[in-house]
Amino acid sequence: MELRWHIEQLNDIAVVRCSGRLVRSTALDDFKGRLERLDTARILVLDLCGVERVDAGGIGILLELRRWARQHSAQVKVVNPSPFVRRVLEATHLASIFEISSLEQALCILRAPGGDPAGDRRYAIA
User: Is 126 domain-assigned?
Assistant: First the structure.
């Protein structure tokens, strides 16, 4: 299944829900280009729950988006990776760069004053 995505943007937060295959392709190039045009986004939340496959090209795009975000004073938050994507991130030691959380945890942190919705509990999101 080819990569598909849907973007919802509210003010400076963009939530991107992805499904299909995050693999080297024209669709992957289009995806990257579209995300890089989100100039007003300061937080880019990538929901990867529907991604069934990822290859080196997909990992490369995630790293490029992270670099782009830093250059634009934005953050990339990776949430809900599918089990396959989670295993790839762990096997490549990128889970420490793209810390994993659920979408609900990420949105709670973003909504809460001070960023901590649960008192002393902290959730890691990248």
Answer: no
